[in-house]
Structures are given as structure tokens and as C-alpha cells.
Amino acid sequence: MRAHRLVSLVIATALLLGACAGASATSTAGNTSADDLVSIGAGLQGPSGTTASAYATGLTHVAALAFDDSNRLWVATAGYDDDGTDAVYVVGASGATPRKVIASQHTPLGLLWYEGALYVASKRRVDVYRGFDGTRFASHSTILTLPSGVGEVNELVLAPNGRLLLGVSAACDHCTVKVADSAAILSFRPDGSDLRVYASRIRAAVGLTFFPGTSDLFVTMNQRDDLGSNTPGDWLSVVKDGDDWQFPSYYGQTSATYESEPRPVAELDEHAAASGVAIVTGELGASVGTAALVAEWADGKVLRVALRKNGSTYAGTVHAFVTGLKRPVPVIRHGSTVFVGDWATGKVYAISRS
Question: pLDDT > 70: what percent of the chain?
């Protein structure tokens, strides 16, 4: 199950389902052993010096996470089938019972709080909810509607320039994309205006996050599944404005034909349905260091991609970070704590330095 092709959670049959030229990919082969992980609590295994707890339970199909200005956790749920029963919940504090605030959603995979409003990215649209009084929102509007033929609408992130960026998958595994807003990262103003293609021809841009204090956009990319022994691992990449990743023809080949194409920061596991990504810069201690933490839905683990600057871009080395999960999807950092949502168990875990 190729999960976060949530077009593959949705398009191909599993719920959920950049980099600057010259960056070299590091395969996970031989690097994802869990031998050095220890029990860190809540049934999880992770690096020594970290601790885990169950922050929220009792949810179904955790798909996206965000914190508001009052430090309340918001959780979007997205089931395997889009039957209109997905929802958005609020969790007031660790251990609190999740409360449903927005019902009748359709595959909401992106949540973002910005200037006191909640942005929800779901099937073919982005909605804004304003005026939360502790129970419900006072108003709601749809600010962006995408054309039919686009694939899964994924994570939403605020860029340093004040624009919003949104990952939209291809509606296929390896076909030629005919809809400009599909297989792309889109950019638009917070009111939904001035929609542009930020980066094009990306099979599935799923998780998006910026390296803290920079405009370097890190993106998890699901790859084609039809290539047999030539199937690449999923990618963690840095994506620049104007990038063209040449899907479906380019998937990491190093021949002269593709020597000018952008390269990933790191190659992840094959058919892993790489999902959410968060970046830490020391908050979890020296054993984790500066790294991108990437969920792999299909493999039930979170990877640690140790990052180092490589000229104008980054290079990454892949290691296991957390195991003991079933189907992790969203990964976010809030303060010095990393939060991971497990789609299969309905739990949200908090991981911090012990």
C-alpha cells in the first residue's frame, strides 16, 4: 500500500498516501537499522536522550496537525475512503479529550494557523475558518478552488514572504500531467488570490517545511511505483521557486540527459509513502542534532535525515529515528517538541529531549 499517495490514500489505494542542483542523494541502504534505538516510552523506540508520550488518543486516521496561538493542538482526520465523515478536532492540552469542531470534511491533509485563522487544505480546495470562541468558528469561507483533474491536496505551509505554499499530487502514478495545478507546489496570497505554480512536475509533494530562519523549502516527494528494479526511493528535497522536476520522465537518473535536473537531499525507502517532515536544529539533543524528521507511512517509522550544508544546498544522511508506529503521517515541531500523528492508531505522540 503506497499510502500517502493519499491520492494514493486516495489515488492509488492507500490513504495517505527541490533540491538545488548539485546536491547528492544518500540512499537509506544500510542506514535505517533500528539497532541503536532504545525504548523511549509510549511503546516507541528512539534515540537515547529522548522521551515519548501519548499526547492525544481516541482519534481516527490522524492526517494533519497544527498548533494555534493558545498552544491548542488541532488535528485533521482523513479516512481511507472519502465519504464526507472526515473532521477537524481540537485538543486543549496533553491527555485532553479531542473535541470535534469542523465536521463533514473531505480528505483534509493540510492545517495552518495564520493571523488567528485556521486554514484547511482538503480535496480540491482551501478553506479559512475565523473567530473561534472555544466551541465553534464564527465564519468560514473557501479561498481557493482547484480544477477537476488535480490529485491529492497535501500539506500547507506559510512562506517567509507571507505567501502560502500547497503541495498537490499528480492524479496518476506515471502519466503525463495535463492540469497545470497538478503535480506541483502552488503559491498564493492568504486571501487565495494571485495563484501561481511555485514548482512543477513533482509526482507528489506531500510534506512541506522551511529550514528555520531561512527560505529553504524542504519537501517529501513520493515517487513512481511502476519501475520494477529501477524504482527509486522516495525523496527529501529542497525545492526552489521555478523548479521543474520533470515528472514522469525523471526519477533520479544520472545520465547526461538529466545532468542539469535538480537532485534530492536524500533518498528514502522505496514505496514508503513519505509523508510529513519537520526540522530540528538541536532541540532534541546532540544524538539527533540538525536533521529532517520524515514519516514513512508504509513502513511505520520516522526517519532522521542528518543535514549538513553543502555549498548553496544541503546533503543528507538517513538513519532510523522512531519505530513502533503503525502508519505515521503528520510530523511537526512545536517549540522544542516534535509531534507525530499515527494514522492507523488515532494517536498523537509528543517526542522531546529527556
Answer: 90
